[in-house]
Every structure is written in structure tokens, then in C-alpha cells.
Amino acid sequence: MAINKNPTSVSLGSDDKAVFGKNLGFAASEAYRLLRTNLMFSLPTDAEHKCRVIGLTSANAGEGKSTTALNLAYMLAEAHQQTILVEADMRLPTISKRLGLKQSPGLSNVLVGLTSKVIAQPSGIEDLLKVISSGDIPPNPSELLGSAKMKTLIDVLSKNADFIVLDLPPINEVADALVVSQFVDGMLMIVRQGYASRHAVIEAMKQLEHANAKVLGFVVTGSENFVKGKYKYKKYGKYGKYGKYGKYGHSHSYGYAQAVAEENSGQVDIEL
Ligand SMILES: Nc1ncnc2c1ncn2[C@@H]1O[C@H](COP(=O)(O)OP(=O)(O)OP(=O)(O)O)[C@@H](O)[C@H]1O
Ligand SMILES: [Mg+2]
Q1: What pLDDT is recorded for position 97?
Q2: Beta carbon of 7 within 6 Å of any ligand 1 atom
Q3: Which of 21, 97, 106, 117 is the most buried (most CB within 10 A)?
């Protein structure tokens, strides 16, 4: 497991979910640019292996994975990299909501075989950034993410992008990030300062090691403005309780997926 010992520290100085992309302050933008640079150096490209696939995870819930994934993907696109951000946290998807995009049809619909077309929606925040939303919430995200279909999807997407950024659930809660780690070039561990315990991070790292994952490095989120107790972290207790999630019975059909593709300009349909 290759680990970059110098973490990139990113502090938004606010827990405002509306702060991303062009709305970021100067210091936060620079921190995300530094993360982009570090990442590009950690994963140099060659002619044979052009697209780089990165998974973002953390030990616990609420450490800043989705925010980091969104801003990192934005910064990569800003640097003229064709980037696909995948909302691969199918349990608590937040990216499509933040960007005002349709949540479904999306990743889960493709993985269960309801459609063979993946819809990469324009992000609306940067031309080269496209987003694949989570789709309808499935009862078995780990199984879907570890499936051969997920591998095929990543291979196909790789032909259409320079970077693929996967926003994943936390390691100590569910197996999703571990099963996906076998399909990516490297994982980034997001660690919230003053929140993630040493024990929890070590536990997560052990699990990644056990799964043979390549950990590219750490991103430390939060700041002195963002102290423990000021912000209530939501519990991941919701995870795994299938009853809370929508049933698959109402999933959209293939026909619907196609219709949506035709309506929205700028959308890219990728055939599996
Ligand atoms: N670098 C940062 N500095 C300060 N606040 C941050 C930072 N990154 C994220 N946040 C804030 O922390 C909260 C949780 O962020 P986010 O939803 O990205 O975490 P997550 O790890 O994806 O959570 P979940 O496990 O629920 O998916 C949000 O309110 C977000 O604005
Ligand atoms: Mg998230």
C-alpha cells in the first residue's frame, strides 16, 4: 500500500453545502488545486493508461467525502481534464442534489441491468465535468459495486475521460468502498480534523490494506472554525436498513432513460 505521508489539508471554514466550485473562497480553492496537483503527481499517466480512476472514502460518515469529490472533480475539469464524477454513494447520495441534477436514472439502474446506457449529465459548473448520479437507491449497494458490471462500467467510462472520481460511503460503516477499491487506481482517505479518532482511521486503513487497496494519501478536512460539538454529524445508522430505502419496483424503465437522454442537451449517453 503506497501512502503519501503528507496529507493535503482543505478547510472551507464553513459547513455550508452550497459552497463548491466557483463559490469557493480563495484559500479553499488553492487547497483543492494543491490536492489536484498532488494527485496528478501520484498517478502519472502514460499512453496505455490514460484515464485515472480515484475513489474517495473515509473512516466515518460526514468527514467531507462528497464535498471533496465534487471540488476535486471541479478542479480537474478546470485544468482541462475530461472528468466524470460518479455518485457511487448510493445510500446517501448528495452530489446530484447539490448540483440540482436528476438522481435517477443513474448508476444503480445500470448496475442492476435496467438500462445499458449510462447517462453522464453536464454538471452545470464546469464544461468538462460530467456527473453520473446514483440512480434509485438499491437494497444491495455493496453487491452492485463489487459486480463485474461495475468493472465493465469503469472500463467503458475510462475510454471517455481523463479522470473518474468516485464518491463512496465510509469504510467503517459499510463494505462498498472496499469492494470498489479493486477497480480503481487509488483511494483517497478523507479525515476530518478533530472528529475522526485515531482508532477509527487505523481500523479503516487496516481494512483497506486487507482489501489490497492502493491508498494515494489523506485529505484533512475541517478547521479550527469547525470544532467538534459545533456541528452535529449525522449517524450512518440509516445504512443497511433496507426498509428505509425505496423499493426497486418503481425503477424507471429503459425507455424512460432514453427519453430523458433525448430531452437534455449536453448529456452524454455511454453505451455499455
Ligand atoms: N474541507 C471542509 N471544511 C469544512 N467543512 C467541510 C469540508 N468538507 C466538507 N465540509 C462540510 O462537512 C459536511 C459534511 O460534508 P460531506 O457531505 O461532503 O461529507 P461526507 O463524508 O460525504 O458525508 P456522508 O458520509 O454523509 O456522505 C458538509 O456540511 C460540508 O459542507
Ligand atoms: Mg457523502
Answers
A1: 96
A2: no
A3: 106
Nearest ligand to residue 192 Cα: 1
Distance from C-alpha of 186 to C-alpha of 257, rounded to nearest angstrom: 31
Residue identifier of the C-alpha nearest atom 26 of ligand 1? 62
Q: Nearest ligand, CA of residue 65?
A: 1
By alpha-carbon position, which residue is closest to atom 28 of ligand 1?
Answer: 15
Q: Do the Cβ atoms of 119 and 106 come closer than 8 Å?
A: yes
State pLDDT tens for residues 52-91.
999 999 999 999 999 999 999 999 999 999 999 999 999 9
- Compute the distance from residue 46 Cα to the ligand 2 centre, in Å: 31
Domains observed in the chain: 14-226 (3.40.50.300)
Residue 11 CB coordination number (10 Å)? 18
Give the integer Cα–Cα distance in Å for 165 and 54: 5
Q: What are the E-state strand segments in 87-181?
A: 117-122, 129-132, 163-167
60 lines ligand 1 (CB under 6 A): no
Strands (E) located in the chain: 8-10, 52-58, 83-86, 117-122, 129-132, 163-167, 186-192, 215-221, 268-271
Predicted model pTM: 0.85
200 close to ligand 1 (CB < 6 Angstrom): no
| Residue 95 to residue 70: CA distance in whole angstroms | 7
pLDDT in tens, 123-144: 999 999 999 999 999 999 999 9
